[in-house]
Design brief:
Blueprint (H helix, E strand, L loop, with lengths): L6 H15 L4 H30 L13 H10 L3 H11 L2 H12 L41
């Protein structure tokens, strides 16, 4: 519970508690706080058990930490063998080639064979290369989707 509190911080909390409550009332305050924490834990445990009993026997291993989306996804991804197939499929997919094929289809061009170095097809501009800046007198092209 207090694993992230260092020794110096713990000493500062004790000194602050002694100054605020005084040495004569401090043991009673500690007992009251520990009793309150114990009651909250008991209430929480009984609520969890009630929910598990209402859900039925198929949810006996249900953990409330699984309701956190990150924890749920991490647990589901740990033993999943389909991820290997997905990674293989992802490695075989060439986005640049697919984009060029779509651009060719949109412009009604025949698909030319790819160049030897793996760059874009002949006659097809490489959309990922940096475009030259227009002269200072020219206005940049208007992009209606960007506005």
């Amino acid at each position: 519970m207090f694993s992230d509190i260092g020794a110096l911080e713990l000493v500062a909390l004790v000194v602050l508690a002694v100054l605020v409550f005084g040495p004569d009332k401090l043991p009673k305050v500690i007992q009251d706080v520990s009793r309150f924490i114990r009651k909250v834990r008991d209430f929480s445990d009984s609520a969890k058990e009630d929910i598990r009993s209402e859900l039925g026997p198929e949810f006996k291993d249900f953990e409330f930490e699984d309701l956190n989306p990150k924890t749920f996804l991490r647990k589901q991804m740990e033993g999943n063998e389909d991820l290997k197939e997905l990674k293989e499929l992802r490695g075989s997919f060439d986005l640049k080639k697919e984009m060029n094929d779509v651009a060719d289809a949109v412009h009604n061009r025949e698909t030319a064979p790819a160049a030897v170095n793996g760059s874009a097809a002949a006659g097809t501009p490489d959309l990922l290369k940096k475009q030259d800046k227009p002269d200072t007198g020219e206005r940049p092209p208007y992009d209606s989707d960007a506005t």
